[in-house]
Design goal:
14 helices, 9 strands, four-stranded mixed beta sheet, three-stranded antiparallel beta sheet, 266 residues, alpha+beta
Length: 266
């Protein structure tokens, strides 16, 4: 079930940015959640593979990854023989993949929700931050997947732990069907992945309606809908917290985006 929460004033964001639970075993506070920010609350969650290839995704995905690996291996030899590494590297450079971006930071998700490519559209529509529970997602996995990730006392996979239970797309899709998906933490191949606190959901080919899947199989999924009249207020707050393009896109490109928005005339 998906719970929708309206955010109409700045104080309503407090539960989102303080989502942690106290753990008696370590006497510390920890969060089991990951987030995804969307600049328009009507946008559907969809992988770039499905947007690009539609109903032919299953047929075309192997060719996309094979051709990417053939030409990209010279730049990163580690992708040879690992479909998961090919996918993560390709996602970073704009290759259509079945990966869906998430972040462990609610502030990073808020940044993407309240930042438009065209700043003139900031007041035109509400935006959204999605939250899913990694522990709950892990509980949906087949037992051998749960056993493998629990062996390291974790709820998410790395490239290597995933390879231990599934070394091909066909095996993964057969194991997941339309009722589960793996959350994977990518290797730190660049500063952007590190700064964005990136995670990916590895969407099985049978799941074409991600929101329908979350509504049917999860209980802790939340969609925070942020009122369009609040977007500039949240955007300015994030800047004061040093959460901006210069952080999430390290380098001159991010710096230029941040400066351009800072001096944008409404």
């Amino acid at each position: 079930m998906i719970t929708e929460i309206r955010v109409d004033k700045i104080e309503d964001l407090y539960p989102l940015i303080t989502d942690q639970e106290y753990r008696d075993d370590i006497h510390r506070n920890r969060s089991n959640y990951i987030y995804r920010g969307l600049p328009d609350d009507t946008f559907k969650m969809e992988t770039s593979l499905h947007r690009n290839c539609g109903d032919l995704s299953r047929r075309l995905e192997p060719a996309i990854l094979e051709n990417f690996a053939k030409y990209a291996v010279i730049g990163d030899p580690s992708i040879e023989g690992s479909v998961w590494r090919q996918m993560i590297l390709g996602q970073h450079y704009g290759l259509p993949t079945r990966l869906l971006d998430w972040t462990h930071s609610s502030l990073v998700a808020l940044h993407f929700a309240v930042t438009e490519e065209n700043l003139a559209e900031m007041d035109d529509h509400d935006c959204a931050v999605w939250r899913i529970d990694m522990t709950e997602m892990c509980s949906l996995l087949p037992k051998n997947y749960q056993d493998r990730v629990n062996k390291n006392q974790q709820t998410i996979f790395s490239v290597d732990t995933l390879a231990d239970v599934a070394d091909s797309l066909a095996q993964y899709d057969n194991d997941m069907q339309d009722s589960a998906m793996v959350i994977i933490e990518p290797p730190s191949i660049n500063e952007r992945i590190v700064n964005q606190y990136s995670f990916f959901s590895l969407v099985p080919i049978a799941i074409t309606d991600i929101e329908g899947f979350l509504n049917k199989y999860t209980n802790n999924t939340v969609k925070y809908v942020i009122d369009k009249g609040l977007r500039w207020r949240v955007r300015d707050m994030l800047d004061s917290l040093n959460m901006s393009e210069r952080i999430v896109y390290p380098g001159l490109s991010g710096l230029s985006k941040w400066i351009a928005r800072h001096y944008y005339v409404k």
